[in-house]
């Protein structure tokens, strides 16, 4: 579904000062039968998403939105985890740009496609590998923030990031802050119409997840959370497979993983 911009002919006074921020948390859940497998999972995640790899991912985000990278700061942590911050500037915007003309509520590109403009801002990522000391559950969380000013929405990077991380769960927040003015001095607190974050995600991806929206339209705040529909135990076992398990163990472990996912998805502890 495509939503037209507020006004294609709206001329702004000076720079578009609206700040558009996309923040989301990605979760990967794993079950390890033995303590050493939990340790191996954390080591695997720490290497798979180290600061160098995360820099490559965020550099690709910058390419998707046609941004120029000004500076990169990155750090691997002990015992685990990593962070990357990239300061970026927009590419040249054509003369006579008008409010909202580059923003449409349609799915953003997958890794192959590159289009857009970005004003001075930043992209950050932080990772949080974690394991339960005695119950076999391990989780990997990545927090990503893309903050932009001006004409293009950071939502255009959503499909690439979901495709790259393929999370079990995803929590997405989008907010437009500040205001910009037209030539008569009238304030505009948003420069495009938006109905749902879901409309920026491809239908193929939407079909893979249960999705819930919580939006505060009058405050330009939008929230979507996603939970993977399909459950195959082999996708959650690290260092082993379900064929190695007894039937009662399959049932127990599956129940335990699903319980962990529902607690994270609902944001509360659920009695077993």
Could you explain how this protein is built, in words?
The protein is an alpha+beta fold. It has a single domain, classed as S-adenosylmethionine decarboxylase, CATH 3.60.90. The protein is built from five helices and ten strands; from the N terminus they run E-H-H-E-E-E-E-H-E-E-E-H-E-E-H. The protein has helices spanning 35-48, 51-64, 158-165, 203-208, 247-266, and strands at 19-31, 67-76, 82-90, 121-131, 137-149, 169-177, 180-181, 187-188, 209-216, 221-228. It has an eight-stranded antiparallel β-sheet with strand order 2-3-4-5-1-6-10-9. Strands 7-8 form a two-stranded antiparallel ribbon. Strand 4 and strand 5 (137-149) form a beta hairpin. The two termini are 41 Å apart. Mean pLDDT is 84; it is low at 1-6, 92-103 and 109-119.
What's the quick description here?
With 272 residues, the chain is an alpha+beta fold. The chain contains 5 helices and 10 strands; from the N terminus they run E-H-H-E-E-E-E-H-E-E-E-H-E-E-H. The strands form 2 sheets. An 8-stranded antiparallel β-sheet has the order 2-3-4-5-1-6-10-9. Strands 7-8 form a two-stranded antiparallel ribbon.
């Amino acid at each position: 579904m495509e939503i037209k911009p507020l006004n294609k002919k709206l001329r702004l006074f000076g720079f578009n000062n609206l700040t558009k921020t996309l923040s989301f948390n990605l979760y990967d859940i794993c079950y390890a039968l033995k303590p050493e497998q939990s340790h191996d999972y954390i080591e695997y995640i720490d290497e798979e998403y180290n600061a160098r790899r995360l820099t490559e991912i965020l550099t690709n985000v910058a390419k998707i939105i046609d941004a120029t990278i000004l500076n990169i700061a990155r750090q691997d942590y002990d015992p685990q985890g990593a962070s990357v911050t990239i300061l970026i500037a927009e590419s040249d915007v054509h003369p006579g740009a008008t409010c909202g003309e580059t923003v449409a509520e349609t799915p953003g590109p997958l890794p192959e496609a590159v289009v857009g403009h970005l004003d001075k801002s930043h992209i950050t990522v932080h990772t949080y590998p974690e394991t339960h000391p005695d119950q076999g559950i391990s989780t990997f969380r990545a927090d990503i923030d893309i903050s932009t000013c001006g004409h293009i929405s950071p939502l255009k990077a959503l499909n690439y990031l979901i495709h790259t991380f393929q999370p079990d769960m995803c929590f997405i927040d989008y907010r437009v802050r500040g205001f910009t003015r037209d030539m008569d001095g009238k304030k505009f607190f948003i420069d495009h119409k938006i109905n749902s974050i879901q409309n920026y995600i491809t239908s193929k991806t939407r079909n893979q997840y249960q999705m819930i929206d919580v939006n505060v339209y009058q405050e330009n705040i939008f929230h979507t959370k996603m939970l993977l529909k399909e459950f195959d135990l082999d996708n959650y076992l690290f260092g082993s497979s379900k064929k190695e398990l007894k039937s009662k163990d399959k049932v127990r472990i599956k129940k335990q993983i699903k319980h962990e996912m529902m607690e994270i998805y609902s944001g509360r502890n659920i009695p077993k």
